[in-house]
C-alpha cells in the first residue's frame, strides 16, 4: 500500500483534524509537552495507533524538521490531483491565488498558509520552473495543505483563459501596477497572480490580467515577500 508522510508538530496536528483513512502516528521517545499530549489525544480520537520510536527512526523517514512527530498515512490523492471545480468556486465568489513560477518552496508554503488563513479558495502552482508539492512546502504551510486545494497546472495561460470563461477576474500584482489596491474589493470571483521572486509576473501572464494592482510602499525597499504581498491584496479582496 502506498503511503505518504507528514512531519512536524503543527503540520501533523492540522492533518489529524482532517484525516480520513488509515494512518499511524510516530512520536519520539524523548518528545514531551502539552502539544505532544494534544497530538496524541487527537490521534486517539480518530482511532489512530500511536507508536513511540527512537529518534533514529525520523532520520531515516523524514526529510524536513520533524520535531519528533510524524504521521504515516495511507496514500490519498493530493489536493492538486483532486477535482478542481472552477465553476463552483466562481459561484461562491471565491479567490484563487496563482503562483507564477515561484521557485522557493518556503515561499510557496507561506503563500498557501496565507491564502488559507485569509479565506482564499485554492492555490495554483505551475509545474514548470516551480517545485512539486513536497514535505518542505507542506511544512512551510504549517499544515494549511490539509485544508485548501493546491492545484498544479502545466500551462498557466491556458488555466487563466479557462478561469475567465468561468467568470473570474484576473488580477496581477506589480510595482508598475496602476490600479489602486483599495478599489478591487468588488472584483470577485478572482484569480490573484503572485509573480516570481526575481522577475515578477511573466509578460504573457501580465497580458492576460484584467487589472494590475500596485501595493503602495512608504519605506526604502521596493518590493515585498511573495506571501506578504499575497496577504495584503487578499485582505483587500476578501474582507467585508
Number of domains: 2
Beta content: 15-25%
The CATH superfamily of the largest domain is identified as SPOUT methyltransferase, trefoil knot domain
- What's the rounded overall pLDDT mean? 86
> What is the number of helices?
9
What order do the strands of the largest sheet run in, or round the barrel if closed?
7-6-5-10-8-11-9
Percentage of residues in helical conformation: 25-40%
Radius of gyration: 19 Å
CATH topology of the largest domain: Alpha/beta knot
- Please identify, by name, the CATH architecture of the largest domain: 3-Layer(aba) Sandwich
Task: Identify low-pLDDT runs.
Answer: 78-82
Report the count of strand segments.
Answer: 11
Assembly classification: single chain
Class based on secondary structure composition and strand pairing: alpha/beta
Q: Let me know the largest β-sheet.
A: 7 strands, parallel
Shape: elongated
